[in-house]
């Protein structure tokens, strides 16, 4: 075997080893639509290339949903996910680990274990909607937090916990649903529905 062929084979083998490494970043991804969850209520982990736009691409592949990107002055912009295109003061925004980055999704490089949330939002004078975060407090009991764009949380008073076709009001932002079979989630008017927990 010639020396050139040996070098070619070695380089090819190294490149093949690098392919899984390039897709090795695993992050949690969820996509909340205007009227329902589009992908990943329980925030599954997906293999993602590098950034928050790649996270949407991985979710779209895993969940077989449509999204569309336009490229403008600021760079790539996600102008549609699923059925609904952005328009007026509504559209698609994202958070990473509860914070809304002030730059485009392609500029937000992810770390393993990060949580990426894409969601439909309508912006008003006081900004966008809070996103709900569901935490388990003890067996059968949950806390619901409302998180703003800066990642600041407060108790989501009046949120509804939904499970197995029934609802329990979390008056002060927490409540017990008792024994249940399905996943628990929280909703609150004007806020983005929460992650789902067992
Ligand atoms: C309205 C608005 C939105 C609306 C757009 C609704 C729609 N109809 O499409 C919503 C709320 C959906 C939005 C989302 C986001 N936005 Co915005 N948005 C604006 C705002 C206030 C006005 C834009 C506008 O209407 N211009 C007038 C029209 C005529 O010009 P246009 O070029 O056609 O405008 C379009 C683009 O700006 C695009 N767009 C809006 N936001 C963003 C963000 C990025 C990164 C890109 C590439 C394009 C883009 O939507 C506009 C309407 O089609 C600007 C601030 C400003 N004053 O410019 C921020 C602004 C452009 N947004 C910004 C950001 C960071 C975002 C988000 C990345 C926030 C997030 N963490 O999710 C997301 C985009 C994520 C995605 N989908 O890819 C930053 C961009 C900063 C940067 N250098 O990258 C700006 C400058 C605000 C700021 N100062 O931080 N946004």
Explained architecture:
This protein is an alpha+beta fold and 198 residues long. It has two domains: 100 residues, Ferric Hydroxamate Uptake Protein, Chain A, domain 1; 57 residues, no CATH class. 16% of the residues lie in helices and 40% in strands. It contains two helices and 15 strands. Strands 1, 2, 3, 7 and 8 form a five-stranded mixed beta sheet that branches. A hairpin with a 2-residue loop joins strand 12 and strand 13. About 3% of the residues have low confidence. It binds cobalamin. The site of cobalamin (B12) has 23 residues, from strand 5 and strand 7. The site of cobalamin has 23 residues, from strand 5 and strand 7.
Low-confidence stretches: 16-21
Our measurement of the CA-to-CA distance between the termini, rounded to an integer number of angstroms, reads 59 Å
Total of helices: 2
CATH architecture of the largest domain: Beta Complex
Tell me, what is the CATH class of the largest domain? Mainly Beta
SSE diagram, text form:
Elements: H1 3-22, E1 25-32, E2 37-39, E3 45-48, H2 52-63, E4 67-72, E5 75-81, E6 84-85, E7 90-96, E8 115-122, E9 131-138, E10 141-147, E11 153-155, E12 159-163, E13 166-170, E14 174-176, E15 185-187
Parallel strand pairs: 1-8
Antiparallel strand pairs: 1-2, 1-3, 4-5, 5-6, 7-8, 9-10, 10-11, 10-14, 12-13, 12-15
The chain binds cobalamin (B12).
């Amino acid at each position: 075997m010639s020396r050139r062929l040996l070098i070619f084979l070695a380089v090819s083998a190294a490149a093949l080893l690098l392919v899984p490494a390039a897709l090795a970043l695993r992050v949690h991804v969820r996509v909340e639509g205007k009227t329902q969850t589009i992908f990943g209520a329980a925030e599954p982990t997906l293999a993602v290339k590098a950034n928050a736009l790649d996270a949407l691409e991985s979710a779209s592949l895993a969940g077989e949903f449509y999204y569309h990107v336009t490229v403008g002055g600021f760079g790539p912009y996600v102008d549609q996910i699923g059925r609904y295109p952005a328009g007026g003061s509504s559209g698609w925004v994202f958070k990473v680990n509860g914070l809304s980055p002030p730059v485009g999704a392609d500029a937000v490089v992810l770390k393993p274990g990060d949580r990426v949330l894409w969601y439909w939002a309508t912006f008003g004078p006081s900004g966008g909607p809070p996103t709900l975060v569901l935490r388990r407090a003890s067996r059968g009991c949950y806390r619901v937090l409302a998180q703003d764009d800066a990642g600041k949380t407060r108790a989501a008073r009046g949120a509804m916990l939904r499970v197995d076709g029934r609802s329990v009001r979390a008056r002060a932002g927490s409540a017990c649903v008792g024994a249940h079979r399905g996943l628990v989630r929280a909703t609150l008017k004007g806020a983005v529905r929460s992650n789902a927990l067992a």
